Amino acid sequence: MEKRLRQARPFFWENPARRPVAACGEVLAVHAPGVAAARERFTRFAPLLADLFPELRAVGGVIASQLLPIPGLADVWRDPEGNAAFSPERLFLKGDHDLPVAGSVKARGGVHAVLCVAERLALAQGLVSSPQDDYRRLAEAKARTFFAGHRLSVGSTGNLGLSIGVMGRALGLGVDVHMSREAREWKKKRLRDVGARVVEHASDYSAACAVARAEAQGRDDLHFIDDENSLDLFYGYAVAAGELAAQLTAAGLSPSPERPVSLYLPCGVGGAPGGIALGARLLWGDAAVISFVEPVQAPCFLYGLASGRHEAASVAELGLTLATEADGLAVGRPSRFVGRLMEPLLDACVTVADAGLLRHLAALYAAHGIEVEPSAAAGLAGMEVVCGDPDGWRFVRDRKAASGVLVAWATGGRLVPEAEHAAFRTKAAGLAG
Ligand SMILES: *Cc1c(COP(=O)(O)O)cnc(C)c1O
């Protein structure tokens, strides 16, 4: 496995530690209440969010995305014999690239983590008297004055910082975002425009996080949102599975063991895909087939899981560089808890090359006019790797995946400037030519 990862070529890895859900009752029971609590918290805050964000007014403050059919991509995925792998009517994109507020999947986890801090402070301060109170009070002058005395801090490759920054500033909290070297200029500018403080680091993501974590130590007015450790983030992401379940049911596509739902989830530290995977297992049990997808230069989750060393394992040991167009996935070490939690729950990991990311980004635009960032094309690119690999294709057949629904999770893109979208497509065309 290490040898394969060192080669930095696309790779399918089936997780040997996966257990049937019947054997995972304990871990699922431990985490089910956290997912339910996150769903209820989003509901409590919805009226306030509708007041704070114009784009949420018409939807009652609910942060949700569409499930988009992508039949136009059916020609892209081929089995090892070169035949079309899936029927067009089974192919979907979960449209978190277009989530309101943060423009990425972080609008679930990041926003939820900020709401957790705000709620705890507001209840302790008596700004709201109980979780049944009207949370729109938190937009009133008294609450804003109080929130202005508190700061959030976070380490980020870009998108997490954006979600914490936009949500935190909307409540009047101060926000410090510690950006790793991958972070794009436009994300920093956008954050400064909403009044966040951007601290630029020449180091990678883990190091930027470490600085932010240390700074917040022992302070009551500085609240560090810890992407590598946070259950608040994780449960916020997990809520997405319930949203997808309602959409599949409405489309008459409820998953069953004969017709499972396959999820292809872009993975950085593992919080977003891990949360979604947990939610999926809770809802569908073994009728979900779950794969995480990482760049060939940043397969930290796969390496942590396969080596059993989790956050102690860094992809730098494999001679990998984190150099990838997928800035949202450019992470060298996984979360401290998600790997262990996923051990019995996750079916497979897949790595993808940048060329695959860009080709799928361009194909999605050509077929459906949908614009996503490179990280968000990882699910689509991962499907190609699985279908074309003999072991991967055997896995697809064993799990009856081609009889069920296939969902590539699109994780970011809405806020990306148009010129950057065009530049990604130009790069993709250069590869093809
Ligand atoms: C953060 C992010 C991910 C992955 O989330 P992790 O919690 O880091 O695994 C995937 N895609 C995009 C666009 C992201 O911003």
From TrEMBL:
It catalyses: D-serine = pyruvate + NH4(+). Its EC number is 4.3.1.18. Residues 89-392 form the Tryptophan synthase beta chain-like PALP domain. It comes from the Bacteria. Signal peptide: none annotated. The modification N6-(pyridoxal phosphate)lysine is found at residue 106. PANTHER family: D-SERINE DEHYDRATASE, THREONINE DEHYDRATASE, MITOCHONDRIAL-RELATED. This is Probable D-serine dehydratase. It comes from Desulfolutivibrio sulfodismutans.
